[in-house]
């Protein structure tokens, strides 16, 4: 299935949306799961259960077709293939300091995130290797990659 995902984030904590314009699916997180809403059929399905954590962000790796999201209390970033019949969470990176915002740069194989506790902006490869702190910001919560202008 051709999946094109665009991203939209609401300020309401724990209510985050990802939308796919081709397959017309809207992804959002609730307290224990990531949900998929079919905008054509209005069907709602539980896509993946993430264990009662807080999920404040999601982003999509267009190249390798994974959804990435941080788990605030578990302090890690996980991913799962989308869309796929076999949805298994894979841990990308652990031992973070309350990750709250993420941004995927598929073109350059980079995953960016901000930690709520340390106020740090960090980066690693999409497989979690080569973790690097880039900067310290003032209470960062949300980050995006400007793909067009790099
Ligand atoms: C809605 O989802 C359920 C469970 O996944 C499925 O059995 C049903 O066929 C779906 N309905 C439509 C209209 O897609
Ligand atoms: C589902 O995905 C996991 C992780 O990628 C893999 O280990 C497992 O073998 C897969 N299961 C099936 C039935 O394909
Ligand atoms: C992880 O990604 C980096 C950068 O693309 C690559 O150099 C490295 O071999 C990868 N490691 C694994 C275990 O796949
Ligand atoms: C790892 O990150 C450093 C700093 O961002 C960069 O200079 C280096 O090229 C990266 N190495 C790999 C294998 O991606």
Which percent range describes the beta-strand content?
over 45%
Physical arrangement of strands within the biggest beta sheet = 1-2-3-4-5
**What is the CATH level 1 assignment?**
Mainly Beta
**Helical/strand content category:** mainly beta
Average pLDDT works out at 86
What is the count of β-strands? 13
CA distance, first residue to last residue: 28 Å
The helix content is under 10%
Low-pLDDT runs: 1-15
Number of domains: 1
CATH architecture: 6 Propeller
Give helix and strand order, one letter per element, not per position: EEEEEEEEEEEEE
Give the cofactors and ligands.
2-acetamido-2-deoxy-beta-D-glucopyranose
Question: What's the total helix number?
Answer: 0
The CATH superfamily appears as TolB, C-terminal domain
Largest sheet: 5 strands, antiparallel
Shape: globular
CATH topology: Neuraminidase
Which radius of gyration do the C-alpha atoms yield? 14 Å
């Amino acid at each position: 299935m051709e999946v094109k995902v665009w991203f939209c984030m609401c300020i309401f904590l724990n209510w985050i949306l990802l939308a796919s314009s081709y397959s017309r699916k809207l992804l959002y997180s609730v307290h224990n799961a990531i949900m998929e809403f079919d905008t054509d059929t209005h069907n709602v399905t539980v896509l993946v259960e993430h264990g009662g954590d807080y999920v404040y962000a999601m982003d999509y790796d267009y190249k390798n077709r994974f959804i990435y999201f941080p788990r605030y209390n578990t302090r890690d970033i996980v991913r799962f293939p989308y869309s796929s019949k076999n949805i298994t969470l894979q841990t990308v990176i652990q031992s973070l300091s309350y990750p709250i915002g993420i941004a995927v740069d598929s073109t350059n194989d980079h995953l960016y995130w901000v930690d709520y506790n340390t106020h740090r902006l960090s980066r690693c490869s999409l497989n979690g290797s080569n973790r690097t702190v880039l900067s310290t910001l003032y209470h960062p919560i949300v980050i995006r990659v400007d793909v067009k202008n790099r």
